[in-house]
Amino acid sequence: MNVFVRVAVVAVPIVTIGGYWALWGSGSAIDKTVVPVTLEAQPAPQQSTEVVADVAQKEVFNDRGSDLPEGDVEVASATSSLPPLLPTARDLNHSDTQVLDIFLKMSPQIAQWLVPDELVRKWVLAIDLMADEKLPQRHRPLNYPASLFKVQKTNVIDNKERFRALSQNEQRYTELVNAFVVVDPRTVGRYYREWQPLLERAYGELGKAGDFNTRMTLAIANVLRVKAPPSSPELTQPHVLYEYVEPALESQSSLEKAVWRLGEENRIALQTYLRELKFYL
């Protein structure tokens, strides 16, 4: 149940986030170093801003997710060619092939960014960290080729250069977010329920209390709780990575700052998707 939940669900997503995605960035910094550039006109990104209808009025799957809601003929047709819902592998060590097959059939675009080994374990670890408002620094499930983070130098204070991020940075993750939000949440929910025993087994390997489903719910809640990003905050570059000048911003969790890096339109699109996805998990 997170930015990445639906991927984890299909493999596990999600959606995460955020970079971590891809949306997975540094927990204490803005992004990788780049050469400052000057402002220039950029075309507005094209992406869906469709608002999800009142999901509370939608039909609900039964407990095992074996039946599609009445009247969902198109969904049934669209998912009929997908791999089996139930995991064919009896253990985590042999689940990668089916996970990759599911992604290739459901979202080839996402499949091209997957790190194709230990997929279930990596997604479970990512979700568990997101439940703590963190992001994985190692063992990342996605390798998304985001473009360079661009800034403009604004001034120098106490011999320290200050910067502001350029507006076109918000387009860096649009392709990633768009690839996630087009995946049918009902289908994701069905895979999630059938794969849950294997997901719980992967979570058990972490040696932590509780269960994975609770962590998934918390991870999604954390992403949904993120508000609009600050408007043109000043940045500094004490080392390799950029950081917020204002301590109150820099002290926010790595997950929240990752969602900010998505840009406002992408944040709204991702959160809208997750609100609907929660209904089917």
Describe the protein's topology:
Blueprint: H1 5-10, E1 18-19, H2 20-23, H3 73-79, H4 96-106, H5 108-111, H6 119-131, E2 151-157, E3 160-165, H7 174-181, H8 185-204, H9 212-224, E4 234-236, E5 243-244, H10 247-250, H11 254-261, H12 264-280
Antiparallel strand pairs: 2-3, 3-4, 4-5
Helix pairs in contact: 6-8, 6-9, 7-12, 8-12, 9-12
Structural overview:
By secondary structure, the chain is α+β, with helices and mostly antiparallel strands. The chain has one domain. The protein has 12 helices and 5 strands. The longest helix is centred in the C-terminal third of the chain and has 20 residues, at 185-204.
In brief, what are we looking at here?
The protein has 281 residues and is of the alpha+beta class. Helix content is 41%, strand content 7%. It is elongated and about 60 Å long.
- Provide the β-strand percentage band: 5-15%
Helical residues, percent: 40-55%
Report how far the terminal alpha carbons are from each other: 7 Å
Q: Output mean pLDDT.
A: 78
User: In sequence order, what are the helices and strands, one letter per element?
Assistant: HEHHHHHEEHHHEEHHH
Please count the helical segments: 12
Radius of gyration equals 19 Å
The shape, in one word, is elongated
Strand order of the largest sheet: 2-3-4-5
Number of strands: 5
Task: Outline the biggest β-sheet.
Answer: 4 strands, antiparallel
Structural class estimated from helices and strands: alpha+beta
Low-confidence residue ranges: 1-79
